[in-house]
Amino acid sequence: MFTMRKFIILLAIVSIAFVSCTKNEDTKVVNYMVTGLSDPYDAVFFDNDGNSISKTVIPGAFEYEWNKSYEIKNGEPVYLYIKFKENIDNSPKFSVGIIIDGKYQYQRKGYDKTIGDTIYEVKVAGIVPIN
Amino acid sequence: MQKRLFFLTILLFPFVLFAQNTSKIYGVIHDANTSAIISGAEIVILSNKGTTSNGKGEYSISDIKPGNYTIKVKFLGYETINKDFSIKAGENLEINFPMEIDIKELLAVDIRDDKIETYSYSKIVLKEADLEQKPIRDIADFLREVPNISAVRKGGANLDPVIRGFKFSQLNIQLDNGQKIEGGCPNRMDPTTAHVEASDIEAIEVLKGPFALRFGENMGGVVNLLTSSPRPFDEFQLHVKANVGYESNWNGQRQHITVYGGGKKVFFSLSGNNAQYGSYTDGDGNKIRSSFTKYGYTAKLGFAPTENQTIMFSFSDLYAKNVSFPSLPMDERLDATKFYSVDYSAKNISDFIETINAKVYFSNVDHTMDNKERGFADTVIAVSNIIANRFGYRAEVGLNTSDNSHLFVGTDMYRIDKDGDRVKTMIGQFPMKNKVPVKNEKLWNSAVITNYGMFAEYRHNYDLWEAVVSSRIDFNNSYSDSISLINGNKVDIIGTPADSTHSSLVNFSISFGLSRKIGENMSLGLSVGRGVRSPDMLERFIITLPVGFDNYEYIGNPLLEAEANNEIDIVYKYNNEKYGGLELTAFYSYVQNFIGGTYVPPAVQKPLTQGVLGVKKFDNLGNASLYGFELSYATPLRYKFRMSLTAAYTRGTMDEVEALVFDENHKLTDIYKIQNDPIGEIPPFNANANFSYNCMKGKLIPAVNVRYSAAQDRISVSMEELTTPDFILIDASLKFKYNQNLTVVGGVNNILDKAYYEHLNRRILGTDTRIYEPGRVLFMNLILNF
Predict the structure, then answer these.
(1) Is A101 part of any domain?
(2) C-alpha angle with apex B17: B13 to B18, nearest 5 degrees?
């Protein structure tokens, strides 16, 4: 009986340690992805600390694709804005998206706004799903 | 003359006969190991005649008819004694009771130093056994079972208690005789009851009315949450207590485990808890967003340098995560609460000084909430973080001023610091100057409230009378950095600059109570009191936020006057060995300087939140009155078949208040004064019947509970309150105590799967739909004790 009691107490202590440890925040992998542009363009996006980063992107020579990947906690905001001069009206490959854990969560395949038909702006934004 | 003597003899004959045939028992109740006296122990002859031991541990029961009896002696934390005795006519029998500590109930709370017998006002004590029988995920939810206690529901958890229509800072809700925790959320997502793990609770004391003034500012009542505390053992021992629970519908599970033990000088307890609940469905099968996760631990370490002194160190580290509040613009993302306390208590120091109790405490709440699960988060993500600290102390000396009187004198103090902001990330907008637009708005700006109080309570027993006088004085100071607001024209109109946020109040509270036992079975009590409380952090210093249950933003007002409750209570108690116990309490309150909101025109301040009707500023609205009653009846405990019935009602009215009229486009068309407007969030008439049967010598107890809540159509016009229909609920449970080590409790709540909501359940944000209560819930609790 004494041994049993000691066992139960040990089990209890382990359980307390288990349940009361601060639980790790769930994280997800975020990819900002731009495809279908061949000329340089301006991008503004959040980094993994939520800071606004602005960058002039020079697309890859072959895939015309740019992506930025990082880990982020659930519930954090994601934001990607690009400003470009290339006409993408007849470009089925054009896409600006935010991929979370390998799946497009937010995506645009056209522009949001044009300035004088020469400058185009697109924005995708949202939050990393909480659950 | 002879005739007169004859009649006098005839008149006195029954009393003479009675006196000749009745007897008395008396004695002392004390700790079997330490010989410390035990006051407040319950002594009942199993014909239901009983008393409690006085401050010296003494008791006496007179007018006992000759015969054979069983006497039962009970006290929290000690093994109950059942003893048979026989008594002859005219005999005065001395029976002393040395009580053994019940190691199975060792975590029980030490409330022996509480001399309050409270015949003159309502005091309710809910003990561990009451809590264990229910699936308790929230303390305020559990308190709703007490007559005239209801709770504001904004989500699945963290309900906010309301007693006789008094709520929030009108109530003094505390932990372990004096510790208070300042919640972080302006919308009270985290009231004090939410910062305490329900399974850590050993007992809850509810003192209704403004009469108990020893425990801090008290306007509408005191709720004292007493948590498990370790006690010394004669020799080193180690024990475990575990409670595992499951609730269907929510798919909720709870685990709580405590290891406690120690020896004579050093003793300890360590508890861990974890609860994970999903969203429930109501009686119509609609899902209510109500999920939450809570976890944490509590550690206590006690020292007993001498037999009559104890020092206890306590630390708790508790977390609440992803708590859903469908009626609010935000959910609680993470609430990290740490609280620390050191308690010193000494007893029987001399014939004159009976007790010394001192406590120092500190709590830190780091509260984060956001709108990320709201539809409008796709354009603006708002995250608020508030840090709330509270430091305080309480020291009290209990004096034996005579054989039948006690005097308590003491002092208490607290300081609250609060600061927080709301960061709005405008993800719906394009960047400005290559940055995503972000707005930072202050909610509190380094606000501080300090309060120094002094109190005294004198209790005197004389024959069948008990008199109580209690008073306290509070010196309250507050200030904040600027709470200025800039309106649409970039003009600071409504705001208050830092140099005018200072406020000093001196509040005096006093209460008188008188009670008299009428024969062996009855007592009648009367209490009159005035309880005053200072405005809280929200009412003084909040910087524009929708925090009421009406659809307005509120602004703080540093110049508010203190709110006062002048109350009279009458308590009638009847206890009969055959028929059981009855208690009837009636109360009337006259509230002065009632704190509410007055409208601020949009020309002065436009709201910052979309969808609200406008802006209100906290103000003293004038006078209000509340009155009502509580009625309870219970069959004698010794009966196998037990029944308890309760009924309660409160009615509240504002003398005069402003009402606003809006057209279909939410444009203000009229403001007018309304007289005798009902106070908002007052629950309707409620009645409850509980039936249980003790099978197998109390090992198996089936119980059925039926509750009726009347419709509430007496609603506040000025607060645009909604009516609530009546409903009937039926719950059933079965408790099986296999042995001292294992108890299983299971049951079904809301058997009929009724779709209903309480009157104090708030609306789901942006709608007139109220948050419905859970539909049918199956629950099971497993309690292990080694």
Answers:
(1) yes
(2) 115
Q: What is the pLDDT of residue B491?
A: 61
Looking at the predicted structure, is the pLDDT value of residue B57 above 50? yes
- Residue-level pLDDT at B604: 81
Residues of B in contact with A77 (CB under 8 A): 381, 425, 427
Which structure tokens are listed for B195? 């910062």
Mean pLDDT for chain B? 88
* pLDDT above 90 as % of chain B: 63
Q: Per CB distance under 8 Å, which residues of B are interface residues toward A?
A: 238, 240, 242, 255, 257-259, 270-274, 295-297, 317, 319, 321-322, 333, 370, 372-373, 377-378, 381, 425, 427-428, 430-431, 434-436, 786
Does A110 fall in a domain? yes
Domain that holds residue A92: 24-127
Whether B370 and A75 lie within 8 Å, measured CB to CB:
yes
Total count of domains within chain A:
1
Q: What is the DSSP string of B367-388?
A: EEEE-TTSGGGGT-EEEEEEEE
Q: Are B614 and B661 in contact (CB under 8 A)?
A: no
What are the backbone angles phi and psi of residue B708, rounded to the nearest 5°? Answer: -120, 130
How far is the CA of B291 from the CAs of B2, B281, B285, B287, B495, in angstroms?
Answer: 84, 11, 16, 11, 38
Residue B712: predicted pLDDT: 97
Mean pLDDT of B369-393: 93
Classify residue A14: in a domain, yes or no: no
* DSSP secondary structure string for all residues of B78-117: B--EEEEEEE-TT-EEE--EEEPB-GGGTT----TT----
Alpha carbons B436 and A51: distance in angstroms, whole number: 9
Q: Under CATH, what is the fold of the domain B123-785? A: Maltoporin; Chain A (2.40.170)
| CA distances from residue B352 to A63, B114, B175, B708, B716 in whole angstroms, order as listed | 91, 17, 28, 51, 53
Query: Is A4 within the bounds of a domain?
Result: no
What percent of chain B has a predicted confidence (pLDDT) above 70?
92
User: In the structure, what pLDDT confidence band is assigned to residue B485 with cuts at 50, 70 and 90?
Assistant: low
Full-model pTM:
0.84
Distance CA B132, CA B779 (A): 12
pLDDT (tens digit per residue) in A9-62? 666 666 655 555 555 568 899 999 999 888 899 999 998 888 999 999 888 765
What six digits make up the tokens of B200? 């850590």
Contacts of A76 by beta carbon, 8 Å cutoff, 6+ apart: A50, A127, A128
**Are A12 and B333 within 8 A, CB to CB?**
no
Place of tokens 């109570």: B513
State the Cα–Cα distance between residues B431 and B440, nearest whole angstrom: 16
Tell me what ipTM this predicted complex has: 0.86
**Helix, strand, coil in percent for chain A, rounding step 5:** 15, 45, 40
Which pLDDT score, from 0 to 100, does residue B735 have? Answer: 93
Tell me the CA distances in angstroms from B18 to B51, B93, B523, one per residue in order: 20, 18, 21
Q: How far is B263 from chain A (nearest CA, A)?
A: 17
Give the Cα separation of B73 and B99 in Å (integer).
9
Q: SS3 breakdown of chain B: % helix, strand, coil, rounded to 5?
A: 5, 55, 35
Q: What is the CATH number of the domain that holds A53?
A: 2.60.40
Q: Which residues of A touch B377 (CB under 8 A)?
A: 126-127
- Spans of all domains in chain B: 2-101, 123-785
Only one residue has tokens 């958890």, namely B157
Find the chain A residues whose C-beta atoms sit closer than 8 A to any C-beta of B. Answer: 5, 8-9, 12-13, 15-20, 22-23, 42, 44, 46, 50, 52, 54, 75, 77, 79, 81, 113, 121, 123, 125-127, 130-131
CATH 2.60.40.1120 fits B2-101, yes or no: yes
* Token digits of residue B688: 């409850």
- pLDDT at position B94, please? 87
